[in-house]
Amino acid sequence: MQAQNSSNMKVSGAAVKYGLIAGIGTVAYFLLFYFINKKLLFNPFVYWASLGFYLALMWSAVQAEAAGERIGFQAALRTAFLVFVIANFSYYLFYYLLYGLIDPGLIDLQREVMKESLEYSGNMLDEEQRDAMLESIKGDKLIPTVGNVFFTFVRSLLGGFLFALGMAALASRRG
User: Between the CA of residue 170 and those of 18, 62, 134, 135, 167, what are the distances in Å?
Assistant: First the structure.
């Protein structure tokens, strides 16, 4: 029983350490773009590239947990997923604070960028889809509230869990 508790503490320690590094790194990454040009926050390449931080640090945490030995599937899954949860919580907290409290004008910039994107790629959508997209950015639908940011965070955990599953499968097969 004692060895299992010690192992669980080690998993939590690696996951927390790398989760915080990923979260702080992601926030710093987005702040860099915020200060360079706020419009870059809405660039899909900038947004999706941040996932690289998560993945690299999820894998690093699993490797640190393994400490050169074979790691079990559950331990790898728990470690990788916890890194994702901590990092993503950090990101969504930052998102809420930045968009909701610090610079609410970002919502108007986001609307503008979304409209430009719709105009640019509008020929790929039929009129009904285009109208639905325009409707989705009107009014207060983009304004971050604690509730909608929390539920977006919770929904994002599914993707993080799938990444963690893949990493756990890979890590547990490595010898």
Answer: 19, 10, 42, 43, 5
Q: What is the pLDDT of residues 13-42, one digit of tens each?
A: 899 999 999 999 999 999 999 999 999 999
Q: Which residue has the tokens 């079990």?
A: 72
How far, in Å, CA of 112 to CA of 131, rounded? 15
Q: What distance lies between CA 39 and its chain's CA centroid? A: 19
pTM (predicted TM-score): 0.86
Q: What distance, in Å, lies between the first and last C-alpha atoms of the chain?
A: 26
The three state secondary structure string of 90-105 is HHHHHHHHHHHHHCCC
The number of CA neighbours under 13 Å toward the Cβ of 144 is 23
Cβ–Cβ < 8 Å for 161, 79: no
